[in-house]
Amino acid sequence: MTTELVRRPGLARIRLSRTKPGRSWLYLLCLGFLVLIVLLALLAPWLSPHDSNAVDLGNALAGPSGVHPLGVDGSGRDTASRLITGARTSLLGPLGVVLFSTVAGVAVGLAAGWRGGWLDSLLSRSTELIFAFPGLLLAILIVSIYGEGLTAPVVALGVAYLPYVSRLTRSLVLAERERPYVEAYRVQGHSGLQICLRHVLPNIAPVVLAQSTINFGYALIDLAGLSFLGLGVPALTPDWGRMVFDGETAIQSGYPLSAILPCVMIVLTVVAFNVVGERWADQVARRDR
Amino acid sequence: MTFVRFAARRLAEMAATLLAASFVIFGAMYLAPGNPASFLLSGRSASPEALKAINDQYHLNDPFWEQYLRWLGQVLHGDFGRSIEYRTPVSTLLAARLPTTLLLVAMALVLVVTVGLALGWIGAVRGGATDGAILVGTTLAVGTPSFVAAVLLQGLFSVKLGWFPSSGSGAGFTQMLWHLTLPAIALALYLIGMLARVTRSAMLEAMGHEHVTVARSRGVPERQVIRRHVFRNTQGTVLTMGGLIVSTLLICTVLVETAFSVNGIGQLLDLSTTTKDFPVVQAISLIIVGIFMTVNLIVDLLLPLIDPRVALGTRGAGA
Amino acid sequence: MNTPTTVPTNVPTSAAANVPALDIQGLHLRLPGTARPVLAGVDLTVAARETVALVGESGSGKTLTSRSALRLLPLKATTQGAVRVAGEDVLTMNPDQLRRLRTHTAAMIFQDPRAAINPLRRVGDFLTESLRLNAGASAAEATARATRMLEAVGLSAGALRQYPGQLSGGMLQRVMIAAALMGDPALILADEPTTALDVTTQAEVVGLLDDLREQFGTGLLFVTHDLGLAAAISDRVYVMYAGRIAETGPADALFNRPRHPYTAALLNSTPRPEAPQGRLAAIEGQPPSIQEELTGCPFAPRCRFATEICTERMPEQLPVPDEPSHLVACHHSDQLAGSLIDA
Questions:
Q1: Mean pLDDT of chain C
Q2: A232-244 mean pLDDT
Q3: I need a labelling partner for B213 at 20 to 30 A (CA). Which of A138, B80, C11, C259 fits?
Q4: pLDDT value of residue C180
Q5: Is the pLDDT assigned to residue C14 strictly greater than 50?
Q6: Contact state of A137 with B288 under an 8 Å Cβ cutoff
Q7: What are the domain boundaries of chain C?
Q8: Per CB distance under 8 Å, which residues of B are interface residues toward C?
Q9: Inter-chain contact A6–B240, Cβ cutoff 8 Å?
């Protein structure tokens, strides 16, 4: 029975606006912001004014100036450069998580939903087990075994998010299976796998992708949290979460800028992913109605 | 099926899942590169004597299943082994820190439930600009990880304004409450946003139901209509989020307690992960998972009371 | 704020003979963004102890007309005219008066009892809610009355403790009827109360409504799309089309001697055992959309008697010759006199 209970608020439950079309300017703004962030990440080496790791202790914690438009952190490193370069790891990690969980989750969900029977029971029970672990806990567990580095936590989080994707996929597949076109193709002699890949998958893809976009935000939060604990990215890599970790003492001394700016970046990026993802989910749900 | 049978079945399921989870937590040790002994010692002296001591203490030369069952037996008796870093029983460490974390989580939970439900109600019922403001606020809240909230709150209310202490957990109950206020808010913020949105959306949906109009048509005052027929009907949905809320609160204590230097279980988890003090990590993981499953069980048992359609089997699986 | 009043006892209300339970005069109802009013000048009366049927297709405005008696109107609607329930105009009441009206004077029975009753609360809660929260009745008093009402509709007191999901559709509709009687209303509005039920239960519910009307002395407005049913149970019938009353009169007069082409068409498309076994004649065409402006008679596009005058001038409601209580709004109502349709 617990399996039926939705652990994370399902897509269909969250109605953002009372009127049908909703505020599209917000959506466009967020989409634009995301494009901007991705560009920053891709073009970081050319866009950052300074070397993000250039230490200058004499200038530590200085405020914004002509040379350093956003100030410097506790080791004199330029905040603006670190923010721009930090976009890379801050986005790359969640991307890995989402790719892993989407691909693996869809595979599992397809297999379980399409085949049914013992395979379904096996896969469903196994993914049920993963639900028992909050994502961050799995990541911490892995880090306590493998130590520093982003690969292990990304895999761990990918595994942690897999059940959400697989369960969604499974229920979508179960519904699709009943549609007339599936029977029609089967009668024509197409194999189950063919029908799955060429027809069912494209039909369920939009919903899954919308959920994955939202998962990106969750992954960003979890990975940034890990870096904040000093457990994620290695020490010298600029990363928004890590920058907050580095800036902790700076806050205590009353110079919070180098820690606050990455916080702002995190919040804005996660919000943007949520808004965009939910809008896509809304559109898909409306299309299906 | 009768309630007793249902409860028994759920209990059995929970036990099974918990068992499987404990297996995963125990077996994780073997995921480490090298052998468990050197892993447990990692970074510390790896002399042959130390290795032998470790092997003996943790019976690492025994077959896997024996180790697991022995460990499980000990855990069920409250013995979580010894911390490698501190060389004291893990349970002692936990006992010292648990009350602080429990208080923190309790405070945060109260905030989440009261503020979250209130904002959701107000947004759904008032509409207009108030709803717009609440939507904006909750959207931001849902984008704010607890460590970000912690850092921002600390920077503003602690360092800048000096209204609250920025670290420690204080001695004595009132002191603790004061010290844990900012951490509790940081912990609760994200979940307040989420609960508010779920409540708001569920209430908006419920308001469209015919029985609400019918109640109005019989002259029931509007406030009562909202309370008895709109809000009340959303409580099932809210309750099913209980597990998620509690487990998120628990795991995020790692972040918040570290940010505020609160000596609770969360901080201990962070410390022991950094120092690779695996027995402690295992113990805390087990506790978090255990509490999560227990809350889920309680939610499942309470749900038929809140929503009689569940008990009758006439309700669908969605809201 | 809630002025405590005594819980009504089981005595039939002796409504003054000359105060109708419901008196609608010239009701116009307009929704924003529409080209014509949803209700365009509706006149309708229901006397005490009388059963009046309001018949029409969906979209004709019959539900809105009945809901106007409780002022259950869409938020942005504008109204003109008067809707008097037991003598008081509902449209101009203040919120307190309105609440009192809804608790004590008028009650509605809704079409789908499963949607109309909160599935999460017990039946007893549903029945006693209005009296407890509005009339200041104690739980005991309200429960006692609820028990009596349940008995009046043929259910046992055990139903009080049950949840709606545990009762059948027919039983739930009886609960609805009992709930409607709780406040001892002068007027009961039944909005297609039998549509969601199977045929056997329909007959039971209709019979029950009639008995109770007699017993409690209320006026009953029965809204339906089924003209046959309407004629069978009511004293008088109103036929509604596109927000207007097309024809009204005593039930047997309307049924046996319809004078409006729409009424005739409705009768033709109602299966009757004694009629020749032809195909069921559905009425061709659709009612005019709310976005369409109207100059003449709204039924003209679908009417086989329509002439030029029908599209130019709105017909007035005029009495049929020799039948002063039989009114029809048609330029050609004489066409049907003496035709095959007359029984």
A1: 84
A2: 85
A3: C11
A4: 92
A5: no
A6: yes
A7: 13-234, 241-336
A8: 209-211, 213-221, 224, 228-229, 232-233, 236, 306-309, 312, 314
A9: yes
Distances in Å between the Cα of B42 and the Cα atoms of A149, A230, B24 are 17, 18, 21
Q: What is the CATH number of domain B98-306?
A: 1.10.3720.10
B221 contact residues in C (CB cutoff 8 A): 2, 99, 133-134
Q: Does C123 contact B at CB distance below 8 Å?
A: no
User: Does position C1 have pLDDT exceeding 50, yes or no?
Assistant: no
Summarize the confidence of residues B59-69 as an average pLDDT.
Answer: 81
Task: Using the predicted structure, report yes or no on whether residue C322 has a pLDDT greater than 70.
Answer: yes
Mean pLDDT of B258-280: 90
Query: What whole-number distance in Å separates Cα of residue C129 and Cα of residue C140?
Result: 12
Going by pLDDT thresholds of 50, 70 and 90, the confidence category of residue B227 is very high
Q: Say yes or no: C329 contacts chain B, CB-CB below 8 A.
A: no
Q: What per-residue confidence (pLDDT) applies to B155?
A: 85
Say how many CB pairs under 8 Å bridge B and C: 74
Instruction: State residue B162's pLDDT score.
Output: 82
**In B, which residues are within 8 Å of A25 by CB distance?**
none
Q: Cβ of C115 under 8 Å from any chain B Cβ?
A: yes
pTM: 0.87
| Cβ distance of C102 and B309 shorter than 8 Å | no
pLDDT at residue A6 greater than cutoff 50: no
Which band of pLDDT confidence, cut at 50, 70 and 90, is reported for residue A148? confident
What's the confidence (pLDDT) of residue C12? Answer: 45
Average pLDDT score, chain A: 83
Hey, what are C50's tokens? 């009388």
CATH for C13-234, among 3.30.1390.10, 3.40.50.300, 3.20.20.150, 3.40.190.10?
3.40.50.300
- The full 3-state SS of chain B, as one line of letters, equals CCHHHHHHHHHHHHHHHHHHHHHHHHHHHHHCCCCHHHHHHCCCCCCHHHHHHHHHHCCCCCCHHHHHHHHHHHHHCCCCCECCCCCCEHHHHHHHHHHHHHHHHHHHHHHHHHHHHHHHHHHHHHCHHHHHHHHHHHHHHHCCCHHHHHHHHHHHHHHHCCCCCCCCCCCCHHHHHHHHHHHHHHHHHHHHHHHHHHHHHHHHHHHCCHHHHHHHHCCCCHHHHHHHHHHHHHHHHHHHCHHHHHHHHHHHHHHHHHHCCCCCHHHHHHHHHHCCCHHHHHHHHHHHHHHHHHHHHHHHHHHHHHCHHHHHCCCCCCC
Q: Report the Cα C51 to chain-centroid distance in Å.
A: 9
Highest mean pLDDT: which of A47-56, B105-114, B298-307?
Answer: B105-114
Kindly tell me the burial class for residue C3, based on how many C-beta atoms sit within 10 Å of its own C-beta (0-12, 13-18, 19 or more): exposed
Chain A interface disruption, residue of B84, B273, B276, most A CBs within 10 A? B273
* CB-based burial label for A8 (10 Å; 0-12, 13-18, 19+): middle
Could you tell me the end-to-end alpha-carbon distance of chain C, in angstroms, rounded to an integer? 56
Instruction: Give residue-wise pLDDT tens across range C265-282.
Output: 888 776 655 555 444 456
**Adjacent-strand bridge partners of C89:** C84
Nearest to C118 among B221, B233, B314 (CB): B233
A256–B159 CB contact, under 8 Å: yes
Domain ranges of chain B: 3-76, 98-306
C232: how many CB neighbours lie within 10 A of its CB? 13
Task: State which residue of chain C sits closest to B208, comparing Cα positions.
Answer: C115
Contact C101 B219 (CB under 8 A): yes
| Distance from C-alpha of A80 to C-alpha of A240, rounded to nearest angstrom | 11
Band the pLDDT of A13: cuts 50, 70, 90.
Answer: very low
Gap between the Cα atoms of A128 and A122, Å rounded: 10
What's the mean pLDDT in C158-170?
Answer: 91
Q: Do A243 and A52 contact (CB within 8 A), yes or no?
A: no
